[in-house]
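ok so heres the complex, two chains, lmk if somethin looks off
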Amino acid sequence: MNTPVIGVLALQGDVREHLIALAAADAVARPVRRPEELAEVDGLVLPGGESTTISKLAVLFGVMEPLRARVRAGMPVYGTCAGLILLADKILDPRSGQETIGGIDMIVRRNAFGRQNESFEASVDVKGITGDPVEGVFIRAPWVESVGAGAEVLAEHDGHIVAVRQGNALATSFHPELTGDHRVHALFVDMVRGDRAAESL
Amino acid sequence: MSTTENQAPETGTARVKRGMAEQLKGGVIMDVVTPEQAKIAEDAGAVAVMALERVPADIRKDGGVARMSDPDMIEGIIDAVSIPVMAKSRIGHFVEAQVLQSLGVDYIDESEVLTPADEVNHSDKWSFTTPFVCGATNLGEALRRIAEGAAMIRSKGEAGTGNVVEAVRHLRQIKGDIARLRGLDNHELYAAAKELRAPYELVKEVAELGKLPVVLFSAGGVATPADAALMRQLGAEGVFVGSGIFKSGDPAKRAAAIVKATTFYDDPKIIADASRNLGEAMVGINCDTLPDTERYANRGW
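and the predicted structre for the whole thing:
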């Protein structure tokens, strides 16, 4: 089967690290900033960054609505940190006018683990990732307050939800793209492959 | 699914410090002196703000010793926005840095814009939980700062002038120095380290990576959307804008325009649109008329 083409939303954030991780997980990875670029990918990563900045730029440059439409239509999507916030149906403490793409029935709290001085590393067991725990890098990280019936919790840290999957949408509070361990990206690439296989049936 | 608590979470690691800067890439960090300005910056799409008492243009004008800002003022800005807040300490003034860490700022800029407190030593940045960004004019200087624990590097430029020429010079120098390292073999890297006055291990790492091991931003003199896009096309991963925004005619509009041009730095049409009707830019200073004693880039070594 052809190699899946996976975009990384490149409005702001750690785009480069995701492109490298996706390529290492055997996908063709490319940055996406415009609606026409979004139309050409099989799946999309929403990187870490500033969720307020990314959401403003997405609205301003007309990619917010196409993003929502594709996520609603089932395009596989993976968000880390700011990307997790963007995938939440609800933010507990949004900045005024802060919009999300939505896609996962969950409520998130931004910067829930604290400011930069509280940023930390900890090992995390992620459902669906075999072998050693994942090295979790949490940077001013959000957590998930609660999930709806359709969303599956994949990992917790210290009693807080830090990884969730609902259908073709995957989200983590932490940053696997900063670790050199590409197993979470491989899981996502598999989701994209599975989606393409299902569509071609 | 299980909760993993076999190992205590670790704060202040090189990975969370450098990783924090990775999250700022492609963004604009804006100097602000009040909570109101911080909100304008956040609304315009800034990825972080730099809290300081006077912007560099005013520091130049006022003269005297420039120091860390008042803690009340920094806390006021921390409370006003949800994006990260940075603040400046004087070069070598590790107690100012300790104070900033205790206030909970997200990044400390050990900055040549303030009056240096130590003419020999920079602060030991490894001993802090809060990450540091430092200015550099060339690769050797950048690597010396990284050796001291800096988790992010910016060009120095010439802050407070509204003149991008020095930032261009520094960024070209850093990128050029890196490109030259790429062409050297293993034997030559030892002599290169000596010439750069930088640790061999870091020199070798840069030669292999083809980039700094930390994020590289541009700073000093960016005043327009095209300036910001220029710095990105020259290889900066993001930009600091100091006096350029709040010393201009319409700060909110200019701030938003610089954010747009930083994201679409390679799209002249978008940069053109962002550049329309911005009102007065800050009045610039020509760097070649600045006496050496007033050049901030000469501070630090």
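quick notes: DSSP finds 13 helices and nine strands in chain B. thats all i got rn
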